[in-house]
Amino acid sequence: MRNPTRSALVLAALLALCARVSTAATRPDDYVARAKQITRMLYPGLDRWLRPVIVAESGLGGPDSVNPDIMNAFFLELHDLEPGLGKAPRACWCSDPVLSARFLFDWQTEKKELLDLLAFGPGVFGRRDEFAEEVARHPEWSDAEVVKAMNEAGAKFGPEHKAELLRALPLEGLAPFMGGQIEVVSAEFMVQHLGSRNPNLIWWVRANWHGSGGREADCTLMLEPFEGKLQGVSREALTHKVGGPPPAK
Predict the structure, then answer these.
(1) Structural domain boundaries, residue 132
(2) Angle between helices 171-178 and 31-42 (to 10 degrees)
């Protein structure tokens, strides 16, 4: 059961994700609308009847915000509120969400670029998490045996399919939300958490972000190997101009 105090933090649950709003027509500071657009773009296979709920874990704004009225950091959750056959409509979103995603936008720039997105839940990791449970039951497996079993379980983007994964990266879709182009530098598949036997099964893609005015920043993308779904993208907030030092604080 979820903490009941979270109900007081719910800020919006108004529009289904099937609503069509063009990126160009959305104000840069309409963070909720842009978060919904990003979710539709990255996870098009999700049930269109899922209902979005916007949750602020610690009020409006975020850890980088000096203005508490700026809603630039929040969670978007997708819940199945549709009743089953012969059942009454659900009155709340007490069950775990199909997908949860934390968004952080840079409220101090003109384009209000997306700085950080972290998504989790069965809508992202359903098949990967099921396989990770199988790996946990076989602590004797080597990394090579884990990868072999993962491929046999239907993973499309194992470590031997790096080129295919890079071609499938949603870089063009992310560009308008991140306010710049993303250039891939390297990609590495992680079988386990560093220094532990816990299964990780994630792609780490390191990249450079190129924004307006010659600004650049380091960027990281994380993707699961079964369908290549994006788990997260993170960009450094502090940028610098090409050929010049970072701006003074």
Answers:
(1) 122-241
(2) 170
